[in-house]
Specification:
Two copies of one chain form a homodimer.
Chain A: E1 11-12, E2 24-25, E3 40-54, E4 58-72, E5 85-98, E6 102-108, E7 112-113, E8 115-119, E9 132-138, E10 140-144, E11 149-153, E12 157-164, E13 173-176, E14 182-186, E15 194-208, H1 211-223
Parallel strand pairs in A: 1-7, 2-3
Antiparallel strand pairs in A: 3-4, 3-15, 4-5, 5-6, 5-8, 6-10, 8-9, 9-12, 10-11, 11-14, 12-13, 13-15, 14-15
């Protein structure tokens, strides 16, 4: 048995969280700061500014907007300082447009278990109301119908959020920790050459979406052209 | 078929390089600077200073010393500026010691295909003798016989080397691009909780080893206690 796969053959980036008994959490919803939250599935807005380099085509940046659904574990401790929370990105759809590239739709790679963690930095464990740090490893699909191509990453995209004073960190800015260039591959030729690079990523978590807003954003993703 | 696995079920971090027809390259050996090198398997020394945090045990740093064997592809172009070289770490053994932890032996996780790339940064493609940048995604096993534990990472450890003027970049310092804390898991309970964190990594590539030196370092790794 591989050390790196789940029982159903996904590549695991971290802890597996069962989503079977988790309630969906929708907006409007208040979040208590510095308080370990009840478990659930956060339905949140998200925006992201992603920069790419495509050999032969050049560099460009796309502004994406969409939603994420994040399953959260029960906190490991009742107090904020010691509580660790494990997360799993179970659904994502962001849509953006670039000149010459057209619409790009970003979703999760179903072959990858995108997981993460919120915890107090080791150096702040003596504080009573420390700001937490959040990290998540993501496997994504970047679908560009106008180019008839879908790109994906093999090394995970590591998303981090610092200065977390509430869980979920709605409204916080975050950074994709990309050093220079993260290779992207062509889904039609996954063992083939590097097709493009992700060169930068800055995102911001939005607030809780209403169930209606989530449904509309999901429908927009489903309406987006496939080829 | 998963987008993220090789045909034999390893998790692939990048391009697969066949090692079937590659010659082993040993020292003493001169490397021509700013010149795309002939393909082969580099047998190189390596040192690494790795910092860990183990909840309940604290933080410590271990100085490792050992070897790597790196398969290199044929450069994609005959000129230095445009040549890309793909790499695969096919063997590694580093040994270090820490007070209270004892000997720690670092090897490759056989479930992970640790691969990388050397290329000219996009902004330097107009230069005639640019310094290249090297990156490699590594899946490792950290075996601590005195603690009867072997730890491993699920998210790859991303090793980077900048200012590369020769391939291989013998003597260059490198950095593990770890943001705050990379979770490590217990090989005996791979789906279980996070066991420790890798919090920092600074390494330096050594020069070509002679075949005798490689054999001795490999034997030292094989002599190291298992439990």
């Amino acid at each position: 048995m591989s050390t790196l796969l789940t029982h159903d053959g996904k590549v695991a980036s971290g802890l597996i969280i069962s989503t079977d008994e988790l309630d969906d959490l929708y907006g409007p919803r208040e979040v208590e700061p510095f308080t370990p939250p009840p478990t659930g599935i956060d339905n949140l807005g998200i925006t992201s500014s992603d920069s790419f380099h495509v050999p032969g085509l050049g560099s460009f940046t796309i502004e994406f907007k969409g939603y994420v659904r994040v399953a959260r574990s029960t906190p490991t401790a009742p107090d904020w300082t010691n509580a660790e929370v494990y997360t799993r990105l179970i659904e994502m759809c962001m849509i953006g447009t670039a000149a010459g590239v057209g619409k790009v739709i970003v979703t999760l790679n179903p072959d990858y278990l995108s997981t993460g963690q919120l915890r107090t930095p080791f150096e702040d464990l003596g504080k009573t109301r420390p700001e937490k740090a959040c990290r998540m490893a993501v496997g994504a699909l970047f679908r560009a119908p106008q180019l008839s191509r879908t790109l994906f990453n093999k090394e995970p995209i590591e998303l981090t959020i610092d200065n977390v004073c509430a869980i979920p960190p709605a409204g916080n800015p975050g950074v994709g920790r990309i050093y220079r260039n993260l290779p992207l591959y062509d889904l039609a030729d996954p063992d083939g050459p590097i097709a493009a690079y992700l060169t930068g990523l800055n995102f911001a978590m939005g607030v809780y979406l209403t169930e209606k807003e989530l449904t509309e954003l999901r429908a927009a993703g489903e309406r987006a052209p496939v080829h």
